[in-house]
Each structure stands twice: as structure tokens, then as C-alpha cells.
């Protein structure tokens, strides 16, 4: 019983750490979800930068055909750990070795765009969109990187070559009689990356769009079906109302 209570307390403390602190979340551009080119580019970024350490073990490669990719494109450009297009997205890295290297096993990302939602801050897509745009150099950290959206994050900045190196600009403000450093919302470019700031933001939007699609591939279909169900219920209610009025019109 003590072990169970201790596990629950540990889980609660970790959840609070993950959700607490950090900057306000930016809004993920929702138009990316209906852009096939964005989803395909997001899949490419995911396979090249994320799938080396993070699996998507509940998602199969052949589902990428639903975003317009051919089987040949999937095999030639996105599959590095298996040759069967019907396989799930697993990593070749051993879980025990990953825990020794990083201190914890990198989590599966199949549902990360849904599981990271916070009612007070935004959706899981908002969190991921902010996370990948909030890295900065910090030589005091083991990885050499820290993140404003997830302070003391264990994951290094895998997209740094695209974004470059930046330094957040803090301002000193007084709060409740104490002075504290607050992020000003501005960054200083230390070393330019391969992309401009606008290009990098767009690429991150593509990556997050893919993760959001992967978390629920049928979301668009479910939404469209929901609209037709509401239309049907509205028409049915109208007929029921008129039928009820006709049935009871002679009854006083």
C-alpha cells in the first residue's frame, strides 16, 4: 500500500511539474490541418528529427497514404527502422540504453498532441508549437539547452540547425514587493540557423499539424459527420414539432 501511495504522489508531482511554470502558450495555426503539403512536410520532419528517439507505436506507416503519400514515397523517405510499410513506427534504440543516456525513456508521441492539453493554457498543439519555438542555449544544463515552455527540459534542441541559437531577453519587474525577471517576449539571435524565423515557425507548424493528425486521423471525418448529424436532428425536430401540433389540434 505504501508503494502505491508513493507512486501516486510521485505521478501527481511529475504532472504538476510538467503543467506548471513556463511562458504563456502561443496559438497553433489551425489552417495547417487542412493543408496536405504541411502535413506531408510535418511527417518528413517527424521521421527525420523525432523518430530516432521517440516512437509512435500506435500508428502504422501505411496510414501516411491518407495524407497523400504513395507507398514508394513512404518507403524511400520515411522508413529507417523497418522495410514493411504495414509496421508501426518504432525506434531501433534500446529502451534500457535510452534510459541510461537520457535519464528516462523518451515517451511515445502517438497521442502527445492530445495528452498535453491544458484547459487554462491551450490545446496540446498549442503546447508543442510553443515548446519547439522556445529553446535557448544554456551551458549550465547537461544537454546545453533549456526551454521557456518546459524549464529544465531533458530533451535537447534537435531542430537547432534549422532555427539557430537564440537568447531570451528578460525584463526586471516588481511583483508583490519583490523584483523578478520576466520574459519580455523578445529574442536575441546568437547564431542564425538554416531557416529564417518565419520559415522555422512554419516548419514547426507543419510538424505539430502532423502530430495532431497522427493523434486522431479521423478527426476531420468525425467533425463532418457531426455536422450532418446535427442537421438531421434539426430537420427531425421540425417534423416532430409539426406532427405533434397536427395530432393535438382537435384536442382541447
Summarize the structure.
The chain has helices at residues 2-19, 36-50, 71-77, 95-102, 112-115, 124-131, 160-163, 197-215, 219-247; strands at residues 56-60, 88-89, 135-137, 145-147, 164-175, 178-192. It is of the alpha+beta class. A two-stranded antiparallel sheet has the order 1-2. A two-stranded antiparallel sheet has the order 3-4.
Q: What global shape is seen?
A: globular
| Widest sheet, order of strands | 1-2
Number of strands: 6
Largest sheet geometry: 2 strands, antiparallel
Strand content: 15-25%
- CATH fold call of the domain at 22-135 and 195-234: Cytochrome Bc1 Complex, Chain D, domain 2
Level of helix content? 40-55%
Rg from alpha-carbon coordinates:
24 Å
Structural class: alpha+beta
Number of helices: 9
Enumerate the spans where pLDDT stays under 50 for 5 or more consecutive residues.
Answer: 1-20
Terminal CA distance reads: 68 Å
Amino acid at each position: 500500500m505504501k508503494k502505491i501511495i508513493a507512486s501516486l504522489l510521485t505521478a501527481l508531482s511529475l504532472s504538476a511539474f510538467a503543467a506548471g511554470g513556463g511562458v504563456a502558450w502561443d496559438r497553433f495555426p489551425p489552417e495547417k490541418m487542412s493543408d496536405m503539403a504541411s502535413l506531408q512536410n510535418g511527417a518528413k520532419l517527424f521521421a527525420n528529427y523525432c523518430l530516432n528517439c521517440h516512437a509512435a507505436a500506435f500508428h502504422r506507416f501505411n496510414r501516411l497514404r491518407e495524407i497523400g503519400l504513395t507507398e514508394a514515397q513512404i518507403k524511400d523517405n520515411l522508413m529507417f527502422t523497418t522495410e514493411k510499410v504495414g509496421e508501426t513506427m518504432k525506434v531501433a534504440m534500446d529502451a534500457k540504453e535510452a534510459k541510461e543516456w537520457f535519464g528516462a525513456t523518451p515517451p511515445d508521441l502517438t497521442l502527445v498532441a492530445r495528452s498535453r492539453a491544458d484547459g487554462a493554457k491551450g490545446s496540446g498543439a498549442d503546447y508543442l508549437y510553443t515548446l519547439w519555438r522556445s529553446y535557448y542555449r544554456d551551458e549550465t544544463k547537461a544537454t546545453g539547452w533549456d526551454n521557456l515552455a518546459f524549464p529544465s527540459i531533458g530533451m535537447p534542441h534537435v531542430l537547432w540547425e534549422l532555427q539557430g541559437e537564440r537568447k531570451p531577453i528578460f525584463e526586471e519587474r516588481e511583483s508583490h514587493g519583490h523584483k523578478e525577471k520576466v520574459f519580455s517576449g523578445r529574442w536575441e539571435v546568437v547564431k542564425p540557423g538554416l531557416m529564417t524565423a518565419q520559415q522555422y515557425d512554419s516548419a514547426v507548424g507543419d510538424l505539430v499539424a502532423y502530430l495532431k493528425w497522427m493523434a486522431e486521423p479521423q478527426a476531420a471525418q468525425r467533425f463532418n459527420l457531426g455536422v450532418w448529424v446535427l442537421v438531421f436532428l434539426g430537420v427531425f425536430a421540425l417534423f416532430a414539432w409539426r406532427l405533434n401540433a397536427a395530432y393535438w389540434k382537435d384536442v382541447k
